[in-house]
Amino acid sequence: MRIGILGAGGMADALGTQWARAGHEVMISGRDAAVSASRAASMTAQADGAVVRAGGWAEAAEFGEVVMVAVRQAGLAGVLQAAGAALRGKPVIDVANAEGPFDPTRPIATMIRDLTGGHVVKAFNLCHVDVWRMTPPVFDGRPLAVPLCGDDPAALAAVRTLVTDLGCTPVDGGGLARATLLEATAAFMIGLWFGGADAQAVLPPISHSGVA
Ligand SMILES: NC(=O)c1ccc[n+]([C@@H]2O[C@H](COP(=O)([O-])OP(=O)(O)OC[C@H]3O[C@@H](n4cnc5c(N)ncnc54)[C@H](OP(=O)(O)O)[C@@H]3O)[C@@H](O)[C@H]2O)c1
Question: Which of 42, 68, 87, 96 is the most exposed place for a label (fewest CB within 10 A)?
Answer without folding.
Answer: 42
